[in-house]
Amino acid sequence: MAHQPSILTSFYKEPGPKLDQESPFDSMMERFRFAADILQLDEGMFQYLASPVKQVIVSVPIVMDDGKIKVFEGFRVIHDNVLGPSKGGVRFAPDVHLDEVKALAAWMTWKCAVVNVPFGGAKGGIRCNPKELSKGELERLTRRYTANLLEVFGPDRDIPAPDMNTDEQVMAWIMDTYSMNSLRTETAVVTGKPIILGGSQGRKEATGRGVVTVTLAALSKMGLMPNKTTVVVQGFGNVGSVSAQLMYEQGAKVIAISDISGGYYNANGIDIPEAIKFMNDNNRSLEGYSNADPISNEDLLQLSCDVLIPAAKEDQINRHNAHKIDAKIVSEGANGPVTANADSILEDNGVMVIPDILANAGGVTVSYFEWVQDRQGYFWTEERVNRRLNRMMRSAFDNLYGVAEKHNITLRQAAYVYAIDRVAETLKLRGIYA
Ligand code: GLU
Asked: Sign (positive/negative) of CA torsion 113, 119, 122, 128?
């Protein structure tokens, strides 16, 4: 199916800056190669870590509400399972393709290694436009996708989670479909579930919370006070809105936000709790939000600010606009919002980039807590979840900051160096099964 621009992606693609046309997997590999060089990884190990363990493409037929059959394409890629069962979200979007899922799966491997959770990396997706599907169609799509991947998923094998356009309800359907087929309730097969079904307190906010923990750590390294900073947030979904809210609570001035309906700018600072309430009362959209001026996606990214949090899509900061970024810190809430081509431009301009595999690792960290709680059948308080999350994110930041200083490299390069070294060391100990 050819890519069709949709309302889900249009604001961030058109009329924004031209994309790099750089494949996400190539972007991932470029950074991987750099780190492999520093680590002097031998050729065999390089080959091993560059090759996904398993790439599954399934056709997902469902009966639509009008009685007609429609066939969708679904993907699940397990990049690596050296550190433990593979872990990663499932996204529903019109432009999901194998190359993207492969890159996202590899990023999950490095992300889990960066925060020291005992998981490998995976990612899945279904190419569809969820805005055009009824709830019943979404349920049938999710259940058939899960049924087609019963041999891949499992609490000790591969554990899906929410990602772009998938939520707690979708996770509940995955859990139920898997459980029905295993003849027992198997809550630990998926994370990001509703709390009543074995989900974890704090999971929903975890990614945004983690973004803010590492952003505050970076600000303090720069000697900047959070209550004296200006913040721009691109994307107002789960990650963007929570990041904006928590930065606002720290006293930061959030001068611009955006979602698929457009960008909203107010030099005096946006009242984030009010904007979130507006969005919730308005079918989860900022459309019509009037306490700010409209701003294009391109201009929003180029605003002068202390912290820019891209929390929308991949490839937003690329070689066409990287030199115009006027932020001290770019904290990657989304996966892959900065292309490999843009890395060196930002570095030359002295922008500190907190890489996705660190910045947005709060989600998978609390997914790990959820999996642990499900397996123990013992559930933690929100306070305990948040405390442990903050501790793990802060120590991952400090660790990578130290690696970056030691090798005189960027935080992104440090994250890859640390993660790849960790996976390679584990692989050496396990050896190659023959
Ligand atoms: N989809 C999220 C991510 O990209 C969470 C994955 C998970 O919790 O397994 O990090």
From this structure: negative
Tell whether 154 and 237 lie within a shared domain: no
- Cis peptide, bond prior to residue 15, ω within 30 of zero: yes
Q: Is the pTM of this model over 0.85?
A: yes
Tell me the pLDDT band of 21, cut-offs 50, 70 and 90: low
| Cβ within 8 Å of residue 164, ≥6 positions away | 89, 91, 92, 93, 237
Q: With respect to residue 241, please indicate whether it lies within any of the assigned structural domains.
A: yes
Domain match, 219 and 173 both: no
pLDDT tens, residue by residue, 213-261 = 999 999 999 999 999 999 999 999 999 999 999 999 999 999 999 999 9
Ligand 1 atom, smallest distance to 91 CA: 1
How far is 111 from 28, CA to CA, in rounded Å?
A: 12
Annotated catalytic residue: which of 123, 193, 253, 313?
123
User: Quick check: is 428 catalytic?
Assistant: no
**Averaged over 199-218, what is the pLDDT?**
98
Q: What is the CATH number of the domain that holds 107?
A: 3.40.50.10860
Asked if residue 150 and residue 210 are part of one domain, the reply reads no
Say yes or no: CB of residue 161 within 6 Å of ligand 1.
yes
Task: Please say which residue of 311, 343, 359 terminates a domain.
Answer: 359
- Domain end call among 151, 185, 219: 185
Flag whether 197 is in a domain. Answer: no
Please list the alpha-helical segments (H only) found in 191-262. Answer: 203-221, 238-249
Q: How far is the CA of 163 from the centre of ligand 1 (A)?
A: 6
Give alpha helix (H) positions in 52-182: 98-114, 135-148, 168-182
CA of 121 to the centre of ligand 1 (A): 9
Q: Can you tell me whether residue 327 is helix, strand or coil? A: strand
Q: What is the total count of domains within the chain? A: 2
* Residue nearest atom 9 of ligand 1, based on CA coordinates: 88
CA of 165 to the centre of ligand 1 (A): 12
Please check whether residues 168 and 233 belong to one and the same domain. no
With a 6 Å cutoff on the Cβ, whether 335 touches ligand 1 is yes
